Amino acid sequence: MKIDPNKTWKRVEERLATETDPVLRRNLEIVRDHMKAEACGDIDRLMQTLSAHPAYHAYGAPPEYSPEGTESIRSFYDAFVASGAGRLEFDLDRLLVDRHCVLTEGTMRMAYPGRILHLLGIEVDEENELYMFETRMAVLWPIDDAGKILGEDTYAEGDGFFGIENRKLGPGDIGSVTDA
Question: Within 10 A of 21 (CB to CB), how many other CB atoms are there?
Fold first, then answer.
């Protein structure tokens, strides 16, 4: 399997198994809950993890990837789910947590439909097939005093679309969410 969505929160749950500080546990739990809701495309549940005034910042990406406010962020996720690109794996190799922020870092893999890639100007063999976006990414998850996520600050290395036309996914390459 090339994309296993369950890996996204695996390291967070491993840390939760040993974390005893209640504030750090709360911060880890809200990030895990956000990750699981995103993996299921459950926008209502995802929005419940956010503060009243969230802001996303995707550094190095076009402005449309940095929505601010609950309405803009809901629209962002609605479009994301509708695009069919919501099947992802964030394979973490670094996780840090403090009283006001969680940092996750690893390899982000996403299954992009060929039709979306075509709309983005990327030529692919089959518009009805899926192709793997892959990049190294770090996400900072600032947390407010009430334990809600203030947003996401993302940093990616390189262009995950570069060469995507050569990373076609086949049957069995994308796992199902088993624990959300």
Answer: 12
Domain that holds residue 158: 5-169
| Total of domains in the chain | 1
Which contiguous run of DSSP H or E holds residue 35? Answer: helix 22-40
Determine, yes or no, domain membership for 27: yes
Cα distance between residue 31 and residue 12, in whole Å: 8
Task: Tell me the CATH number at 17.
Answer: 3.10.450.50
For residues 149 and 136, what is the distance between their CA atoms, to the nearest angstrom? 22
178 falls within a domain:
no
Q: Is residue 62 domain-resident?
A: yes
Q: What does pLDDT average to over the chain?
A: 96
Ranking 59-63, 159-163, 164-168, 176-180 by mean pLDDT, the lowest is 176-180
Q: How far apart are CA 177 and CA 137, in angstroms?
A: 21
Residue 179 placed within a domain: no
Over 80: is that where the pLDDT of 180 sits?
Answer: no
Do residues 12 and 35 lie in contact, with contact meaning Cβ atoms separated by under 8 Å? yes
Instruction: State pLDDT tens for residues 101-110.
Output: 999 999 999 9
